[in-house]
Amino acid sequence: MLTELKDRRGHSYEALARKAHMSRSSVHRYCRGTIIPVEFGAAERIARICGATPRELADLYRHWAAATALQTETEAEAETEPEPEPEPEPAVQAVPVQAVPVQAEPSPAVPRTAPSPPGGARLALVSVAFVLLCVASLSGSTHATAPRAVSRPLPAATATAGPGPAPWAQSPVPVSDGLFGMTLNSSTGAMPTFQVDTVRLWDTRTRWANIQPRRGTYDWSILDRLVAGANQAGLPVVFTMGGTPDWASPHGPRAAYDDGSRTSPPDDPADWRAFVTAVAERYRGRIDAYELWVMGNDARYFSGSLETLVDMTRSAKAVLDAVDPDATVVCPSMGRLWEPDALRALERFAELRGYDSCDVAGVKLHQRTATDPPEQVLGLVEEIDRALHRGGAHPKLWSTGTLYEVALQKPLDENTASAHAVRFFLVGLYARYPRMYYYNWGGTKIPIVMQPEGQPPTRAALYVEELRRWVHGTRIHSCGTGVAAGLPVGVWQCRFDRDGSEQVIVWHATGTARIPAPRETAAVHRLDGTVSALGGDRTVEVGTLPVLLTRAP
Fold first, then answer.
1. In angstroms, what CA-CA distances link 60 with 67, 160, 292, 479, 494?
2. Most-buried pick from 108, 258, 436, 521 (CB within 10 A)?
């Protein structure tokens, strides 16, 4: 990669050496791959001189980290007989790279018969072998119903395996006033007593089968309570559809609910149109958005074909445009997106032009497990973007839930739960998703409990409320992490403008670090509501709970 950057810029080894304050032979060996710099900074200096972009710097770091890590492993397992040491270089420790056998098709660059590849190919082999090693060590999620073909899971993007996603910057734009969403797990009509922006209805006994137990017969009692409670609290409502009644698809597979609902589409498409029409007519102007199905790519929720799902989406969109044109139409949400078959279903839905019939696409953003750092999700965000791009669609995106197995995961301790809950919404800001629906409010059988119905909010909920105070009314203009953003590895930040004054939210994904405070910082705000003046050394210690840095208390 260094050679590609060098050639693109047209620099000679001599010119690079002068600008980077290195010897010509060191620059030559780095670019040829015959040695690996002990510190990434040496490679970074060369790349920056060659005009590398932030994303290219992030990729370069991944290559360097992978090669260094695998070299350490292979050295530990090597024979005790010492390798010949390379010629010493000024100010640089030369680290020989050991060849790693890789089964691959022969190529001119790396002949299969060569006992030891040349330097550039050697570094490439190290990087490839390390990536394959990482992929092979991962395990996919399990399916709760019938077995299906095993597919290779996507690689886990962790907050500690490199610099993370590329930083971004833009002209300041207002933070969405719908960012802080909660999915309700209650049918009483009660709402959160801490501040949120919007609520989503699912696990509220408002599935199609609950509302329409028989053709032509509707029971609106629960949905009426929920919509009235949300309207009274000033909270926009997302109504999520799903759960075909047994009368509409008597031979379809049963869903994982006690109401007899089916995962199959209705036998008669007219029944679907009639249901959407009835809901839209009753709640015109009182329901803000309609999510047209839940988990459209998961057979536990929808077992019909994607072609049928696209047809249902188009017909529902036509009804809603006619009955309640101000409502937002959210395409059937897609989950299990860490798994390639599920990601491919999202891509296929795009290829079928399903997203042409919606205002927003719904996806499920979550870590692989609740204990993983929330920043892991940003790797999934990139995979979603690529899948949509391949499918020819670029819709606005909302995160509308989590994974099916979340209720099976163990509770997190209070400190971890609080940090992860807050950073769930910061990840949404980093990904530039205008709405993030946390799952859930009212329930207790989940790793992070926000507020059991009828009880006070937990610390996690109160910290989310404080984060909301920090960002509401601000304009966000950049986010970044790690080396590519000029930060230590593992440190993340987003920058905002409030009334012409810059403020920064900064945190660490897994540990702590002491960093220099931005110029003109005067105060450090914490999620428990306390504020302290910046110390005389003008540094601040950041941990897994984000802090807000401002010019004035």
1. 11, 15, 42, 20, 23
2. 436
What's the alpha-carbon Rg for the chain, to the nearest Å? Answer: 27
Residue 109: phi and psi, rounded to 5, are: -75, -35
Distances (CA, A) of 481 to 51, 429, 497, 505: 19, 13, 19, 12
User: Three-state DSSP class for 481?
Assistant: strand
The order of strands in the sheet holding 547-550 is 168-174, 475-481, 491-498, 501-508, 547-550, 523-525, 531-533
Give me the DSSP letters along 155-222.
PP--TTSSS-SPPEEEEEEEPPTT-EEEEE--SS----SS--SEEEE-SSS-SHHHH-SBTTB---HH
Instruction: Pinpoint the alpha helices (H) of 329-409.
Output: 340-351, 377-391
CA-based nearest residue to 288, from 328, 242, 228, 331: 328
Query: The pTM is what?
Result: 0.74
Pairing state of beta strands 475-481 and 435-441?
Answer: unpaired
User: How far lies 93's CA from each of 39, 47, 98, 99, 250, in Å?
Assistant: 9, 19, 16, 19, 72
Reported as a pLDDT band with limits 50, 70 and 90, residue 23 is: confident
User: Residue 71: enclosing H or E segment and its boundaries?
Assistant: helix 54-77
Report pLDDT digits (tens) over 414-445. 999 999 999 999 999 999 999 999 999 999 99
125 and 110 Cβ atoms separated by less than 8 Å? yes
pLDDT tens, 519-545? 999 999 999 999 999 999 999 999 999
Rounded CA-CA distance 175/495 in Å is 11
Contacts of 550 (CB under 8 A, 6+ apart): 501, 503, 521, 522, 523, 525
Task: Identify the weakest region by mean pLDDT among 1-15, 59-73, 373-387.
Answer: 59-73
Q: How far apart are CA 550 and CA 553, in angstroms?
A: 7
H or E element, residue 491: strand 491-498
